[in-house]
């Protein structure tokens, strides 16, 4: 049987480890040709670098905006946050989503088809566990951007959806965060998850694989919480 995504070209951002790697691997398993991009490949908050990246790849059928994170920042009171601190997180999470989406949609419009999936966070739907204001704001912005672009691009046959992951130990930052909670904090976090376990990168990748498949061809503008039921509490 021919894989469902055979002949499709995908761009996945933020693929150095964890969730991004799992997404790229999953799309390759489904038959797509996957281009992996991370901060060592291109600065996705720089419009010129994004334009060169898309020009080099050519037409893209699937875009997964997974790049982001907190860049090593920790939670502090807002009056201690510098302009540079704020801008760095918003650029990494929201500006990159805007620039990559803007760059791929002309070819998608011409083809009258396309799939865009934005990886937000539970912090975009509630509050950030780390208390980082810029992160919560940028991730909420991705959700609003998803809905607006779904409305705008729907007439061209392009779907735009979003995934809000729960806690996944997927990279050095989340590992440090997990260790900082201590045994009691870790226990409380897990007890606040209906399924009583942390997420795995593959849990998030499976949501992406669904959204870009033919099974999701009449789904757009939606936000899927993949968090083991944490958002129920």
Describe the structure concisely for a colleague:
44% of the residues lie in helices and 14% in strands.
What labels describe this entry?
44% helix; alpha/beta; six-stranded parallel β-sheet; single chain; 233 residues; globular; Rossmann fold
Q: What would you say this structure looks like, in words?
A:
The protein is α/β, with parallel strands linked by helices and 233 residues long. It has one domain (9-168, 201-226): Rossmann fold, CATH 3.40.50.720. Helices cover 44% and strands 14% of the residues. It contains seven helices and six strands; from the N terminus they run βαβαβαβαβαααβ. A six-stranded parallel sheet has the order 2-1-3-4-5-6, sandwiched between helices. Strand 1 (9-13), helix 1 (18-29) and strand 2 form a beta-alpha-beta unit. The termini are far apart. The mean pLDDT is 95.
- The strand line-up of the biggest sheet is 2-1-3-4-5-6
CATH class annotation: Alpha Beta
CATH architecture: 3-Layer(aba) Sandwich
Provide the number of structural domains.
1
Helix content: 40-55%
Termini gap:
42 Å
What are the segments in which pLDDT stays under 50 over at least 5 consecutive residues?
A: none
Structural class category: alpha/beta
Looking at CATH, the homologous superfamily is NAD(P)-binding Rossmann-like Domain
Question: What order do the SSEs take from the amino end to the carboxyl end, as H and E?
Answer: EHEHEHEHEHHHE
Gyration radius, rounded: 17 Å
Count up the helices.
7
Shape: globular
Annotated CATH topology: Rossmann fold
Number of strand segments: 6
For the report, how would you describe the main beta sheet? 6 strands, parallel
Average predicted local confidence, pLDDT: 95
Strand content: 5-15%
């Amino acid at each position: 049987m021919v894989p469902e995504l055979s002949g499709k070209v995908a761009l996945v951002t933020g693929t150095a480890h964890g969730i991004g790697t799992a997404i790229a691997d999953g799309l390759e398993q489904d038959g797509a040709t996957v281009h992996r991009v991370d901060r060592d490949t291109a600065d996705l908050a720089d419009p010129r670098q994004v334009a060169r990246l898309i020009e080099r790849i050519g037409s893209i059928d699937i875009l997964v905006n997974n790049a982001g994170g907190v860049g090593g920042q920790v939670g502090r009171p807002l009056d201690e946050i510098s302009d540079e601190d704020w801008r760095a997180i918003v650029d990494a999470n929201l500006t990159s989503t805007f620039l990559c989406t803007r760059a791929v949609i002309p070819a998608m419009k011409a083809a009258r088809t396309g799939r865009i999936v934005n990886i937000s966070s539970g912090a975009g739907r509630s509050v950030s566990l780390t208390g980082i204001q810029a992160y919560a704001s940028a991730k909420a912005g991705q959700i609003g951007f998803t809905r607006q672009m779904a409305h705008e691009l729907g007439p061209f046959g392009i779907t735009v959806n979003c995934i809000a992951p729960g806690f996944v130990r997927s990279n050095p930052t989340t590992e440090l965060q997990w260790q900082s909670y201590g045994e009691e904090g870790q226990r409380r976090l897990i007890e606040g998850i209906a399924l009583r376990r942390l997420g795995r990168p593959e849990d998030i990748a499976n949501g992406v694989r669904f959204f870009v498949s033919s099974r999701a061809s009449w789904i757009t503008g939606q936000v899927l919480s993949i968090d083991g039921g944490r958002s129920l509490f």
